[in-house]
Design a protein that fits this description.
Chain lengths: 143, 147
């Protein structure tokens, strides 16, 4: 499954449209990850504060969104463009790839909440595919 | 047996009480058919599913969406024995409809996205947690009788 030219435009346009609230999206998505899927906290045991609305969670959400916007800018070659991030996830963070799906779902729930009118099924499918491809690029170097 | 906290019980009742089944059902099913197009395999006789617009305007999809939500209501009213409530439906989906049970999860995800859109800020992380736990029990019960 790859993104068609039309879908790439949809993704770029949608992410541009929501960019002013990207911090909010990231923070909300991380909060939901921790609350709805408590097992994900296993990756954040080093945080002083594991609360969903705490500073570390918020900061992590912002970091994740930064990575996503980088992926949008490299949408034509995500595996190549996200090489550093891929190596980070493979050799340092070693996040089980199942969690990429979980976080993607949380991000989309937040997008749907904050942009109910705009997050139509057509945009949903393009974003879903995009997030899946980002996850794939991030797991490139796993084995 | 599934243990529900008071918060979870209250949340599920409240979310479904406020929900317009005739709006959410069709929206969730049509979204599922658009976002996960392979799910269309079960609706060969529904007519025009050629593109997102056709799917969203299809009256058979809308009708079936309502049917699904009304079916979900049975679990809302029987939270302490969802497994038994859905035993027959599980057999139906397995023996007669031959639906891959993974599809229940896909539809549940689309339902979550639609409810999030309808509820906006009221769909807090805790509400989402309760809602997804409820749907996970439903999904598991529907897949229970497969063999």
């Amino acid at each position: 499954m790859s993104l068609s030219a039309k879908e790439k435009v949809i993704v770029k346009d949608f992410f541009a449209k929501v960019s002013s609230r990207s911090d909010e999206i990231g923070a909300e998505a991380l909060a939901r990850l921790i609350v709805v899927y408590p097992q994900t906290k296993s990756y954040f045991a080093h945080w002083k504060d594991l609360s969903p609305n705490g500073a570390p969670a918020r900061k992590q959400g912002i970091t994740v969104m930064g990575g996503l916007y980088e992926a949008v800018s490299k949408i034509d070659d995500m595996a190549g463009g996200l090489l550093t991030l891929s190596e980070l996830h493979a050799f340092v963070l070693r996040v089980d790839p199942v969690n990429f799906k979980i976080l993607s779902h949380c991000i989309m729930v937040v997008l749907s909440m904050l942009f109910a009118e705009e997050f139509t099924p057509q945009i949903h499918v393009a974003v879903d595919k995009f997030l899946a491809l980002v996850a794939l690029a991030l797991s490139e170097k796993y084995r | 047996m599934v243990q529900w906290t008071d918060f979870e019980r209250g949340t599920i009742q409240s979310v479904f009480e406020k929900m317009d089944y005739d709006d959410v059902g069709p929206a969730a099913l049509s979204r599922c058919l658009v976002v996960y197009p392979w799910t269309q395999r079960y609706f060969g006789n529904f007519g025009n599913l050629y593109n997102a617009a056709a799917i969203q305007g299809n009256p058979m999809v809308a009708a079936h969406g309502k049917t699904v939500l009304r079916g979900l209501d049975r679990a809302v009213k029987n939270m302490d024995d969802i497994k038994a409530t859905y035993a027959e439906l599980s057999v139906l989906h397995s023996e007669k409809l031959h639906v891959d049970p993974d599809n229940f999860r896909l539809l549940a995800d689309c339902l979550t996205i639609v409810v999030a859109a309808r509820m906006g800020a009221d769909f807090t992380a805790d509400v989402q947690g309760a809602f997804q736990k409820f749907l996970a029990v439903v999904v598991s019960s529907l897949g229970r009788q497969y063999h």
